[in-house]
Design brief:
The structure is a homodecamer. By secondary structure, chain A is an alpha+beta fold. Chain A folds into 2 domains: about 60 residues, Orthogonal Bundle (434 Repressor (Amino-terminal Domain)), CATH 1.10.260.40; about 60 residues, 2-Layer Sandwich (Cyanate Lyase, Chain: A, domain 2), CATH 3.30.1160. Helices cover about 50% and strands about 20% of the residues of chain A. The first copy, chain A, is built from 6 helices and 2 strands. In chain A, strands 1-2 form a two-stranded antiparallel sheet. In chain A, a hairpin with a 6-residue loop joins β1 and β2. The longest helix of chain A has 25 residues. The first copy, chain A, is globular and about 50 Å long. In chain A, about 55% of the residues are buried. The model of chain A has no long low-confidence stretch (mean pLDDT about 95). At the A-I interface, α1 of A face α5 of I. β2 of chain E pairs antiparallel with β2 of chain F, so a sheet runs across the interface.
């Protein structure tokens, strides 16, 4: 009996290790970016029936698990409010150190409002650099203004 | 008597409102990006004497405040671990929803390690879009691998 | 010296008690709804220069305070993550008890996505009822769908 | 052995996915609003014997599970005090940003007291809009005044 | 300049020590119970103009403070979620140890619903006892049932 | 294998639903008040052998479970420091809103000390009222004075 | 204007440093143990008029401060729930490591109940030891049994 | 499969209830104080092979469990930072109320340093008293001074 | 089915107790330092195939577990933000007491930046001392400077 | 009026910026290591009269501040349990990632016990390295064994 999406995520991770799959292969198979595809497989996005069928086959999921992939999940991928994993903590640290800066610069350019985390996309690439390669992340989110009413 | 950098940040914010300065003007004056400059003025970076003198003049700071700008500050710009401000929360939400995804993809590309939040730069631009302009953020951080020893 | 919006909110609250003003009067004076107007005066919204001038005059604010009203504030009006005030706690309790319900019903109607808290408006009215009058709150927020990319 | 209502909620969610039921169908079957019905199925409300029998049949529950539906549950549907799911967080954000505003306006209209979260009903509808459909939520709660004694 | 009720509470406590007043004297002066009166003076209840004038005179408050007594306050009298003071902690402990018991017994008698903390009164008396006098607290709150809709 | 009292509480709750027992019946069977009896069955009190045998029979407990009922349990019946269940939260709210009041009045009557939560009893009754029946709770705890030494 | 006991504690600490007083001298002056006396001066106990007068004179307190010493204070002397100071943390660690042990042994000896923290006294002495002197703490608290009712 | 010491503690507690053993009997069997023995059985101390064999026999532990008793455990016996159990909370309250006092008196007697919680022993006895027997706890910890370097 | 690295860590700890292995033996077997090897076995580092095969054989792991050792794990080895185990707490205490000192001295020597926790190695040795042997820990991390951009 | 050590730390930090002193100069002046000296000036250690006089002169402290330097302070230099400053967080991360490793290795070498954080010294040096200089930290703490009693 599967009663939440996290169980499906665990099944996917188990199968991924066993079958030594790569996220980019999964992304190719369903024809979406590797960023969206990974987030979806990790329980953060909702798949269409066609996408879920492909994912189900790649990871040997049963029908019940495949059905759960098509249900909007309870999102949030961190076990604690402040993440302990060093890689993810660095992202949290950037929000902490640069949060007020990003707020100031978006307001200076656009006025009061936010960058959407829903109408949003992300792209992660290797940036070659003789002093050591870099992670290059591009985030693009629609600006949503506060309006008077 | 100034005993911490936060007091200097408050003086800068007060002067910025009174003199209606823009962060981009400050950045031009000290010859750095608007992202680094804003972070520095908000108490997250250390300025050189030359930079501090320019900032001090722009914001009418006294000598004591200008000296504090040249001291490495206790960093972190958020009043609570989970930020309440909607704009900054969206960044936190991205870390929460996409954190495990970013971790998986960086590891898939680079192996175990992190994206540095120190050897790091950021660029924020308006991305024009007929369906509504977007915030375009580029982050670049050096990949640092874990090694055996 | 004013270094954050909370100081201006405190000045407004002080003047409001002293002058016995009503929020509906302030709303009429700036020509916006009482909901937006109150939120703005309590430090959650950004005012235009014209609006700020009216508010400044009503509450006897000085120029510095009036300038701050036109700056996008750090938002969030609660002193603790779980509010202690009984009226505000009831709202939190509704999110806690009905949160999963609202999520299910919005997803059933719209698919995966959220109700915007930015492209949002609210209206609070007295609902007369022989068994005891009721508070009638209407909230309207744009649905924002998650999309694949 | 079932020892709490959360286990019954998990059974309902599992069956709902497997049988591809809609909350509105369940609501029709027991003759209540979709809002109350969903909250009840998610473990927040107590059902009568008749309602529990219908729900039990729809979700293939055994007698023990159906009995638990008739017991007043320990309420609260969120795994953390500040919800991580973006849809539910937006509701929390509204309480945070507008909480003090709602408090002020209810007190201005009714005097000191609260909007009941018990003598309460809610209605969620799609609000068609050429600029993008909206979520329209109506909440109605009895005003309960504080009295002297 | 007074910008919140807590400042008035501090003024009352200061004056109470200086003038060696008793809460029961204050209660007599405004003609209410000592429980409601004390809660009101400690910033948890709203006073009428007549009551506020009496309290203002007893504690030598200025007009601004007396005006604040007539504004519905942000309630909650504890500095931390779990109180450290031994007397108040014992009350918290009772909620912790007996909370599930009280819930069970109210539901057994009344069905699903709550005891109101708003339509509520309290009486505290000395209960003489040869083995040591006791604190006798009576709490009476209206039962509010959850209903279907 | 039973390794803590919480497992016994779960067994009791399961049996109570299955056998549709009432707490008052259990109380009659062991000859104690319904308040103490319910607290004991919910894992907050220690039973004598005789009491445990009666409870064990009523709820079909095995010998190991019956033995655990006679062991002083780790007490505390709430899953979180601030309870989410609306009925129990109202009790917490009373401590929060009236905590400082109760402290002041007990000190005014008795001097410095506490109301014992151990040498304590409680009685919960329905209080009939034409405007809606009320929950009537009486708490009686021995006053314990702080003394110098 | 003094509005809480913590201000008086600060005044005492300031004077103690300035006048280089020892707690044992204060204890001798008021004729109580050094443990009770120190706790009282640090804002955890209530003094009689006679005791307060002596303390007031020793620490050069004004009448208002001396009056506050006679009011039952809001107790609790730690700034955080888990203390950061190494000496006080060791005490917390003892509760953490030995807490379940002490509970088991008191229950084995006395049955269910607690050691009172109110009807309590403490004595701290130097214990000479050739391998390094030791801190010798004796705590004595009345056992209070839970009883059925 | 046993993967941590807590599982062994649960096995011991289960057997202790089933076999109605007393901690003092266990202490006699291994020839240590009842305080150290109980702490060891509750997973806070490391046993020698000889001690573990005795404990293993008394509680019918298998070889794997007996081996775990000889591994230094991850210590800490409380499920939450602030304990909810009334007996253990009283100890926490003593740290909270008397923590600063103990700190002052140890520093006054010994200078800056701590009482060791490692080079430490404890003794708990019944103290007969006509007004009600008392718990008598003696704690002895080596004083460790901070030194300059 | 293994769905996370923590399960593999539990398997390793279980086998280590059963087979009475030492970390230094494991380190020798894979030809790395005991510090890195232990951290890797405890789920904090990623092993190569060759290393994982050796570890798998030493601890009798199945293929699935051995595969998980080669996946970058979610790091962080403490169950709570502030560790309760006395040995690990002492490390936390050092960060708390000396954190600001280390920050000052690194900045004084190197300017603004950090000591890397990734490009990092550690060595723990016994330091013989007639007054009692000491733990000697050497930490070496690359200095990473903040730069302007 | 100075009522705690933190005020003296603030005075020292203010003077240090104004006079552009280095910690190593202060250490030389009082003849102690730069590590102990900095910790002492930052409010974590107690100074002798001679040391305090030197520090007082260097930082232009008045007599009251100099007296406070000789009082054992309430220790702990971080504003939050999990530090936000990137440099200090890296130390916390090391405790989190390597905490269980250090515990295992110390126990393997010494048996059950701890590394003292009191009988402790620390040395921080620049380690020259062609791939980038490193921070070299040596910590030495006495091993304290748990013993039976």
């Amino acid at each position: 009996m599967i009663s939440n999406r996290e169980q499906v995520t665990a099944m996917i991770l188990t199968a991924k290790v066993r079958k030594a799959l790569k996220w980019s292969q999964v992304a190719d198979a369903i024809g979406q970016s590797k960023e969206w595809t990974t987030a979806a497989c990790l329980g953060q996005m909702t798949l269409t029936k066609a996408q879920a069928d492909v994912v189900g086959e790649l990871f040997d999921l049963n029908d019940e698990a495949t059905a759960w992939l098509q249900i909007a999940p309870y999102k949030g991928s961190l076990p604690t409010a402040v993440p302990t994993d060093p890689l993810i903590y660095r992202l949290y640290e950037l929000v902490n150190v640069y949060g007020s800066t990003i707020k100031e610069l978006i307001h200076e350019e656009f006025g009061d409002g936010i960058m959407s985390a829903i109408d949003f996309s992300m792209d992660i690439q290797r940036e070659e650099d003789p002093k050591g390669d870099r992670v290059h992340m591009v985030m693009s989110g629609k600006f949503l203004p506060y309006k008077t009413y």
